[in-house]
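Figure 6 in text form: structure in, sequence out.
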């Protein structure tokens, strides 16, 4: 997957807690998972096919 570098500013406490959990080299992967999970939660209708519809009884 192509990547692009960004700079973000985070509150100190959650940033330090995340770093303690994943280590300095894991913060990008952790942030990626958080963003992906949030996008999935914000778009639930796009991830699940509707029940019923043409051809279903």
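Output sequence:
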């Amino acid at each position: 997957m192509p990547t692009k570098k960004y700079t973000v500013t985070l509150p100190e406490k959650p940033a330090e807690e995340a770093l303690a959990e994943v280590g300095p080299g894991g913060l990008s992967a952790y942030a990626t998972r958080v963003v992906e999970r949030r996008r999935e939660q914000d778009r639930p209708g796009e991830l699940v096919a509707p029940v019923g519809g043409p051809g279903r009884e």
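Caption detail: The chain has a mean pLDDT of 85.
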